[in-house]
Amino acid sequence: MNRSTLQLVAIVIAAAFVGALITYVIVRPAGKSAEGDTATAQRVTIENGEPTVTLDQATQQKTGLVTTPVSGTQQTEELQLFGNVVDVQELAALENQLATARAQGDQARAKASFDGAELARLRALNADNKNVSDRAVQESAASVAADDAAVASAAVSMQAALSTAMQRFGAVVANALAWRSVLYQNLISLRQVLVQVVMPPGTTPPRTLSVIAPDGNAVQATLLSVAPRVDPKLQGTSYFYVAPGGKLSAGMNVTAHFAGTHAVAGVGVPNDAVVSFQGKSWVYVKRDPTHFVRREISGLFVTNIPPGSEVVTTGAQQLLSEEMRAQLHEE
């Protein structure tokens, strides 16, 4: 071979070697990754509708997984109620109607008092040798009768306004309207708001409860009276509560919370066991030596985990990460 041929052969061999090396570097890691992906996917399954992670003892020790048994306890049941903030604008209209009727009644009574005295005077003069005519007496008597009718009409208007208030807002608010009490003044000025809350059947309404506005703000509300009407959106016996104004506005839908009278059995979950995912709280419950079930919870007192169960207090986030990797590999 001449020198040129030898150089060509050397170049071909070098190129082949480099190509083989690149292939080895690319293919071998990919093969290992695929094996790892398969192992990861096999660790995560869905059993009885719950995500379950399988880890052998060696992997648990390597990751530092720690579980803690949960003890049974009891807690007073907290009830969640639904309600809305009542629009009291109708109270202002009823107050105007009531004020008008009162003014008309006062005017009619004042006129009746004058006309009654005039009728008595005319009757006395008529009886004294007909110093005034019978017609004058009759006309005066008609005026007195008209005054009485006006007084009665004003009373009916006042009663109508109060009856409407009674039917819509109940006796307590109706009386507050009639007397223009501090309660009425506070409601009209929005220093306080009226909240209608629906109670479950057989539940005694508490004296106070915590009302939660849509933005998460909580205010204390005080029991006022039974609500005379049922909210068409929230069927059930409902009650009026009075709450401070400012955070609550008319028409708002709200929730309310208070401790019930029944004790509920459950377990206390350590805070270290809780992980967050998709806006919810979860814990991993050890089903057996190698299987860990992710279970949703609401708060640190739960009823869906049996007493004596072991929950993961160290390594829960790693288990969640294992699930996420499995989902990515499936995709």
What would you say this structure looks like, in words?
The protein has 331 residues and is of the alpha+beta class. The chain has 3 domains: 89 residues, no CATH class; 76 residues, Elongation Factor Tu (Ef-tu), domain 3 (Beta Barrel); 99 residues. The protein is 47% helix and 30% strand. It contains 6 helices and 14 strands. A hairpin with a 2-residue loop joins strand 10 and strand 11. Helix 3 runs antiparallel to helix 4. The relative contact order is 0.17. About 10% of the residues have low confidence.
Features of the shown structure:
alpha+beta; Elongation Factor Tu (Ef-tu), domain 3; seven-stranded antiparallel sheet; six-stranded antiparallel beta barrel; 6 helices; 14 strands; 47% helix
Summarize the structure.
The chain is α+β, with helices and mostly antiparallel strands.
